[in-house]
Design a protein that fits this description.
10 strands, Rossmann fold, globular, 3-stranded antiparallel β-sheet, 8 helices, alpha/beta, binds 6-phosphogluconic acid
């Protein structure tokens, strides 16, 4: 199944379209299975999307929400993805969503891996909707090129849900969903904005090793439909 690309004239139009699509998929999941799940990324790109989603009139009390990755910081710290999601998504109509974070009281992400996996196992899978971001270097979630654990985290023959990983350049030790966990989704959206990321996407869609631009692991797989949403 090839990945599909959708381009929008501006970020507001993209945000409205993506939020509407996500809402429809979550509602369909709830109608079919009684509950649904939404997995989101951190970073700056999803803030407007989170705001828009928080106003959607859907049965949020039946939606499990979690993260594709987390920086190993207290949830009260501004660089924590949980903090971001609590500030911008888990409010208004979405205040009743069931949030399951990745961070726990372990001193390091590595020490917190088992507990994190136990928590993540509470979120309904296959995930109904999983939204990824992408860095200019082609990283997605915390699957960074050159990371110590990149090979282990992208090994499709292992069944870990999450793995501690240290990016070679970006700050903080992280917890990331593994590639098999990311691909245990019904729909994946890659949400990117700006010309630089469009250039990075073109590069990722061209030939080259997946390890060099880990978003390629997502763009090249054939099992889960992937739609890339882009606006300038
Ligand atoms: C994180 C992420 C990460 C993010 C990209 C893009 O926690 O940082 O989940 O993979 O999606 O780095 O980040 P921006 O949206 O800030 O460009």
């Amino acid at each position: 199944m090839p990945c599909t690309r959708k381009e929008f004239s501006d970020q507001n139009t993209l945000t409205a379209a993506l939020a509407e699509k996500i809402g429809a998929l979550l509602s369909a999941g709830i109608a079919k299975n009684g509950r649904a799940s939404l997995v989101v990324s951190g970073g700056s790109t999803p803030v407007a999307l989170f705001e828009r989603l928080s106003g959607l009139d859907i049965a949020w009390q039946d939606v499990g929400v979690t993260l594709v990755d987390e920086r190993w910081l207290a949830p009260s710290e501004v660089d924590s993805n949980e903090y971001l999601v609590r500030q911008h998504l888990l409010k208004d109509k979405a205040a009743s969503a069931i949030f399951i974070g990745m961070k726990n009281s372990a001193g390091t992400a590595e020490a917190g891996e088992t507990e994190c996996a136990q928590q993540l196992a509470l979120v309904p899978r296959p995930f109904d909707v999983l939204v990824l971001g992408m860095g200019g270097d082609g990283h997605t979630a915390s699957l960074f090129p050159g990371a110590d654990k990149l090979q282990a985290a992208t090994d499709l023959s292992q069944d870990k849900l999450c793995m501690a990983i240290t990016p070679p350049v970006a700050p903080y030790e992280r917890m990331t969903l593994t590639l098999p966990a990311i691909l245990n989704a019904r729909r994946i959206f890659v949400h990117i904005t700006g010309e630089k990321k469009k250039e990075a996407l073109e590069k990722a869609l061209a030939d080259g090793p997946s390890e060099v631009m880990p978003i390629r692991f997502i763009l090249r797989q054939k099992n889960v439909p992937v739609t890339v949403f882009w606006a300038p």
